[in-house]
User: Fold Oxidoreductase from Clostridium saccharoperbutylacetonicum N1-4(HMT).
Amino acid sequence: MERGILVTGGAHGIGKQTCIDFLEAGDKVCFIDFNKDLGEEFSKKYENLYFYHGNVSKSDNLKGFVEFAKEKLGRIDVLVNNACKGNKGILSDLDYDGFDYVLSVGLKAPYELSRLCKEELIKNKGRIINIASSRAFQSEPDSEAYASTKGGIVALTHALAMSLGPDVLVNCIAPGWIDVDESESFSKEDIAALPAGKVGTPKDISSMILFLCKHDFITGETFVIDGGMSKRMIYHNDWNWKYSIDDK
Ligand code: NAD
Assistant:
């Protein structure tokens, strides 16, 4: 059976690879992206791939996307809330509207799309997969908007899992460093800092998304996929890491 898959931010990076994986699994995919050129170019490559040009921070664009998807796909089985960007905070004096924009893209849109797709997802015993970040759990300075948004989507995940289960299973993936530009220009030190011995690829995340869509005993959960980066215990002078008080 062809499932109907919705992906946000599907024109590039993790979202794009997710679209490809579902298409290769025999599904029909509809994605929203605000990058018109990339979206159009990508959608021309696959018969069962449909592009809706829009910004997920706008509620009318979200409504338009879901209506478009219902028309093109005929059904909705999986919603992947992937689109997000923005990494500034209090040191850059990010203001109320700037903070609100990141929340709108990365947290309000996933809620609103879940609401708009609720009946279809319940009817089809579907799945919601949210994309957070390891930054939901650890931070650099000046990253309040992104960190809060990603922390929020982890909580949204378990809240939705309680509200929509057992019909809809809801899970979240928190990626670490993923090379979305296929740059492969990492230093030996970059790679050595990652316990898995490599920087992640979009496929490392999309394969987990597809796995979670097959599994039926996992819900409300967040999976950190960061090559072990956040698991390393570091004290000053360990592993050649030096804490510099002046750099703080
Ligand atoms: P990316 O920049 O490669 O692609 C994101 C896509 O989303 C782009 O096509 C962009 O045009 C689109 N987009 C962004 N804002 C949008 C909006 N408001 N409306 C519509 N489309 C929008 O990003 P990526 O690295 O693949 O990130 C995907 C997800 O993974 C994000 O939620 C991001 O926070 C998360 N993530 C990425 C990394 C990483 O290292 N790449 C690490 C942790 C988490």
Q: What stands out?
A: Helices lie at 13-24, 36-43, 59-73, 96-123, 144-164, 188-192, 202-214. The first helix runs from residue 13 to 24. The mean pLDDT is 96.
